[in-house]
Write a structure and sequence with these properties.
Structural class: mainly alpha
Shape: globular
Radius of gyration: 20 Å
Low-confidence stretches: 1-6
Order of helices and strands: HHEEHHHEHHEEHHH
Helix content: 55-70%
Strand order of the largest sheet: 3-5-4
Distance between the termini: 30 Å
Number of domains: 3
Strand content: 5-15%
Number of helices: 10
CATH class of the largest domain: Mainly Alpha
Length: 238
């Protein structure tokens, strides 16, 4: 497992299991330079951390977009050095926003592989309640774009009611922001032809998503800081 500070404490077997890939794949990505080398511990055993997990998730998303291994190598080389696991997760979210919703029917075995961890009956029920899964003939219909997020929420000490309420708040505000931005941009493209509109949309989509993610992260940090310090608009937890 990984410590709260993000120190690398996963063995290569644990990393592969968490990421839903094989040990051979992890080693292959390492030789290609797609993953940073592990930290060597006692007896020269390699240890991996959250950055490796985040990079593996990003590689998986780029492959889902249809990018070749050579293309992924070029893409990762162009990323700024020193990106944190959170930065990589934001980048992956932006990449994922370029593609339409990906819902696939998977077996229970495939679901566990894609989740990168064992899932008991209670875990599956929570994922269904989150809207990540829906029972289907022979398995489940899984929203693969939300699966990693849903699995991550399984370890968050929040009730299902709180998670559902948070999802509702985020969806409502996201839809409101999307409507207002759409109205704002509509005036800019009203006089353009269809090709110009498609080109503008292709360029603006990832930029808008990145801007929204950045603004939300900063706003959430400010709110949490106010809550934890008891500043204006918040009170410190008891």
């Amino acid at each position: 497992m990984t410590t709260d500070t993000g120190e690398p404490t996963l063995t290569i077997d644990e990393l592969a299991a968490r990421a839903g890939v094989t040990v051979r794949t992890v080693r292959f990505y390492g030789t290609k330079g797609l993953l940073p080398p592990p930290v060597l511990g006692p007896r020269r055993v390699g240890h991996y951390g959250r950055e490796h997990l985040a990079r593996l998730a990003l590689i998986e998303e780029l492959q889902r977009q249809g990018m070749t291994l050579a293309g992924i190598e070029r893409h990762l080389r162009q990323l700024p050095p020193g990106l944190s696991p959170r930065d990589l997760a934001v980048h992956r979210a932006v990449v994922a926003s370029w593609s339409p919703e990906t819902v696939e029917t998977v077996t229970r075995e495939e679901l566990v592989r894609r989740a990168g961890r064992p899932l008991d009956g209670g875990d599956v029920e929570r994922l269904v309640a989150m809207g990540v899964l829906r029972p289907a003939d022979g398995g489940y219909e899984a929203d693969l774009g939300l699966l990693r997020l849903g699995v991550g929420l399984l370890d968050v000490p929040l009730s299902q009611q709180a998670i559902s309420a948070a999802r509702t708040v985020l969806l409502e505000h996201a839809r409101a922001a999307a409507r207002e931005l759409s109205d704002l941009f509509r005036g800019e493209v009203a006089q353009r032809d269809a090709q110009d509109v498609r080109s503008l949309s292709a360029h603006m989509h990832p930029l808008v998503v990145q801007a929204l993610l950045t603004a939300f992260q900063r706003s959430l940090k400010e709110e949490l800081d106010r809550w934890l310090t008891g500043g204006p608009g918040g009170s410190a937890p008891g």
